[in-house]
Amino acid sequence: MAQGDVHKNMMQALLGAGAMAEDDLLSKLEECIGLHQDAAKRAKLKFAGNKDQDKATLDSVVSVLNTQLDPLGLKIAKQRSKHDDKQVYYGIVNLRPDDLVKLGTNLDKGEQELFHKILDEIDSSEEKEIDEMGAHNKRLDCTPRVSSEDATSCLQQLEHGQWLHKSDDGSFSLGIRILLQRMYTSKIGEHTSEL
């Protein structure tokens, strides 16, 4: 099946968001099929308004995209979140744990180290979370040391990017993008492919 405008738009939506809830992705699929009716017809894609049928259509689109992402070492994964009322999320994950991946982040070296120290703390804690102050203070253990302002900005960026989840009480736990990525990471402590 050739990739058409519906597939391209769905890929753009996922790339832009990093991870999307299934309901949001289904809404995007409906929008894309409506915008690109000729391409949808050629690709035999239609939005039925029936959740089971529409999920099957979404799965077929994801399957085509995964075939095209495979040579790049990427995949669209899906997993149920422990947050957000057990919503199913789709997100792009990296299957290649190499140094080139590290260049694909806008965090500097100190901020990447901060992120990994926070992940290590979450992984080792019984509650699988770290309070906001504890996360912020991990900056003091980084070389080079991360400024307070940069740590605040980094935490906001990680939360916005869905790498970390911030609860109502201000604690951080693993975000959906980490959970999706870890489905394909060989070792729990291996962070090179996560960001």
Quickly describe the structure.
With 195 residues, the chain is of the alpha+beta class. The chain has helices spanning 5-17, 22-35, 37-42, 51-69, 99-102, 109-124, 132-137, 148-160, 176-182, and strands at 19-21, 74-80, 88-94, 130-131, 164-166, 171-174. It is elongated, with a radius of gyration of 18 Å.
Give the helix/strand layout.
Blueprint: H1 5-17, E1 19-21, H2 22-35, H3 37-42, H4 51-69, E2 74-80, E3 88-94, H5 99-102, H6 109-124, E4 130-131, H7 132-137, H8 148-160, E5 164-166, E6 171-174, H9 176-182
Antiparallel strand pairs: 1-3, 2-3, 4-6, 5-6
Helix pairs in contact: 1-2
Task: Report on the architecture of this protein.
The protein is of the alpha+beta class and 195 residues long. It has nine helices and six strands, in the order αβαααββααβααββα. Strands 1-3-2 form a three-stranded antiparallel sheet, sandwiched between helices. It has a three-stranded antiparallel sheet with strand order 4-6-5. A hairpin with a 7-residue loop joins β2 and β3. The radius of gyration is 18 Å and the shape is elongated. The C terminus is likely disordered.
Question: Can you give keywords for this protein?
Answer:
single chain; 195 residues; alpha+beta; three-stranded antiparallel β-sheet; 9 helices; 50% helix; elongated
Mean pLDDT: 87
Largest sheet, order of strands side by side? Answer: 1-3-2
Q: Please tell me what the overall shape is.
A: elongated
Contiguous low-pLDDT stretches (5 residues minimum) are 187-195
